[in-house]
Design goal:
The protein has helices spanning 6-19, 31-37, 87-101, 116-124, and strands spanning 43-47, 53-61, 71-78, 106-111, 128-139, 142-152. It has one domain (3-152): Gcn5-related N-acetyltransferase (GNAT) (Aminopeptidase), CATH 3.40.630. Strands 1-2-3-4-6-5 form a 6-stranded mixed sheet. The protein has 4 helices and 6 strands, in the order ααβββαβαββ.
Length: 158
C-alpha cells in the first residue's frame, strides 16, 4: 500500500464503516493520520483485473512498550461487492506471512460479535477468541461488545 492507494483504501474503509459492524470509527481519517498509526510494513492492497482496489489490510502497534514489539492489531476491509469471494482470506493470509517475516509473534483482532463473516475468516486462519470486552463503547445510543481474537505465530517467538 502506498499513499497513492489512499483514495481507494479510504473508499473501502468508508464502506466498512457504513455496515455499522466493522469499527467504532464514524469517518475515515486523512492519509497522514492513518499513516501515523499503522506499521510501515505489512500494508497490503489487492486489485481486480481492471486495477480497481478490492480490499486492504494493515497492522498497527498495540503499544510502544518494548515488551509488545512483536504484537500488532489487524485491520482488514473488503469492498462491499467483493465480499465472500476470497479477497479477505487472501489478504489475511498474506498479512500473516508478512507479519512473521517482520518478526511479529502475535496478531490481535477486535471484532464486533455481529460481524460473523469477519469472525469466521479470522478463525479459519488460526485466530482464536481470547476474550470479550463488554460494553466497550457506544455507537449512537447503543453499547457494543467487542470480541478479542489472537493468532500466535508457529514460527516466530516459539
Amino acid at each position: 500500500m502506498q499513499e497513492t492507494d489512499w483514495e481507494g483504501v479510504r473508499e473501502v474503509f468508508l464502506q466498512g464503516i457504513a455496515t455499522g459492524n466493522a469499527t467504532f470509527e464514524t469517518d475515515a481519517p486523512s492519509w497522514d493520520q492513518w499513516h501515523s498509526t499503522h506499521l510501515a510494513s505489512c500494508r497490503l492492497v489487492t486489485r481486480g483485473p481492471g486495477g480497481g482496489l478490492l480490499g486492504w489490510a494493515a497492522l498497527s502497534k498495540v503499544s510502544n512498550r518494548c515488551v509488545y514489539r512483536g504484537i500488532a492489531e489487524v485491520s482488514i476491509y473488503v469492498r462491499e461487492d467483493c465480499r465472500g469471494q476470497g479477497v479477505g482470506a487472501a489478504l489475511l493470509q498474506q498479512l500473516i506471512n508478512d507479519s512473521e517475516a517482520a518478526e511479529l509473534w502475535t496478531l490481535q483482532a477486535h471484532i464486533f460479535p455481529e460481524n460473523l463473516a469477519s469472525l469466521k475468516l479470522h478463525e479459519r486462519l488460526g485466530f482464536r477468541q481470547v476474550g470479550r470486552r463488554e460494553r466497550l463503547g457506544k455507537m449512537g445510543e447503543t453499547w457494543r461488545d467487542v470480541l478479542v481474537l489472537e493468532r500466535r505465530s508457529h514460527t516466530v517467538g516459539v
